[in-house]
Design a protein that fits this description.
The protein is an alpha/beta fold and 254 residues long. The protein has one domain (3-216): Rossmann fold. 35% of the residues lie in helices and 25% in strands. The chain is built from six helices and eleven strands. A nine-stranded mixed β-sheet has the order 1-3-6-7-2-8-11-9-10, sandwiched between helices. A two-stranded antiparallel ribbon has the order 4-5. α3 links the parallel β9 and β10. α1 packs across α5 (196-210) and α2 packs across α4. The protein is globular. The chain starts with a strand and ends in a 10-residue tail after the last helix. 35% of the residues are buried.
């Protein structure tokens, strides 16, 4: 397997942090990273393509097709450098996932990144009203560094294996002695569910710890609209259920 890496720019970065958010459970990590890229106006400096990505194409805003790519972006803000790993796909199998993560970590080492952050979701049977956030990683000092009241470190026995790039990056970073941490937010474990609430909780943690000055009001408005729609749907189905319930005096033949 091979990866084509296209360099778009050679940014000047000072001991950057890498934040990864690729598609996964509830797309929690992807939503969070895409939000940061957009609102911080991060700039793409590298593109990765590969035959190990899903065998499909995407239709862009110009109604033309594009092969799947994963991009790396950067932003220098408040005296710190941040790199973002974002895209619409992940490698399709275990070997290509490991190989892809090695390629990413080569870039991380090239720019002398000081830590790696991966983001993801924890699937639940129901949609949580207030998603909890958990943290784990390969370095105790880094885990203790990121503080927030709503973040728990009690994952053992509750959270299963962290699958895909979000997990493998943590493990391979340890082999290269790069401190790495993962933030995982609860979300509804349905394939069509968008974990905006979970992404918002993770963004709140990163916003405070990294001093990103992100305005999360836009996400709050989306969550409010989603909650209203959810309540409307519940009322709708309750009314249907009432209308089809048989009356006590109804008799049936046959």
């Amino acid at each position: 397997m091979s990866f084509k890496i296209k360099s778009l720019e050679k940014p000047k970065l000072k001991s950057p942090i890498l934040i990864e958010g690729l598609p996964g459970m509830g797309n929690v990590g992807k939503i969070a990273v895409d939000f940061m890229i957009e609102h911080l106006q991060a700039k793409k400096f590298l593109e990765i393509s590969s035959h190990s990505f899903p065998n499909s194409v995407f239709i862009n805003e110009k109604n033309l097709i594009e092969l799947p790519k994963i991009g790396m972006y950067y932003k220098n803000t408040n005296g710190k450098s941040i790199m973002f790993l974002a895209g619409d796909v992940q490698p399709t199998d275990e070997k290509s996932c490991y190989a892809f993560c090695e390629e990413v970590l080569d870039v991380v080492e090239k720019y002398h990144a000081k830590e790696v952050i991966t983001l993801g979701g924890i699937g639940l049977p129901e949609n949580p009203k207030k998603p909890a956030v958990y943290k784990t990683g390969n370095n105790k000092k880094l885990i203790q560094k990121y503080r927030a009241k709503q973040v728990s470190t009690s994952l053992y026995g509750f959270v299963g294996p962290i699958v895909g790039v979000s997990g493998v990056l943590l493990g391979l970073s340890a082999e290269r002695k790069i401190p790495a941490i993962s933030f995982l937010a609860e979300t509804f474990g349905h394939p069509n569910h968008l974990g905006i609430k979970g992404a918002r909780e993770i963004l709140d943690v990163l916003n405070k710890n990294l001093r990103l000055n992100l305005d999360l009001a836009e996400l709050d408005a989306e969550i409010s609209d989603m909650n209203k729609e959810s309540e409307s749907e519940k009322d709708f189905f309750k009314n249907i259920k009432r209308s089809i319930q048989p009356r006590k005096d109804t008799t049936y033949i046959g």
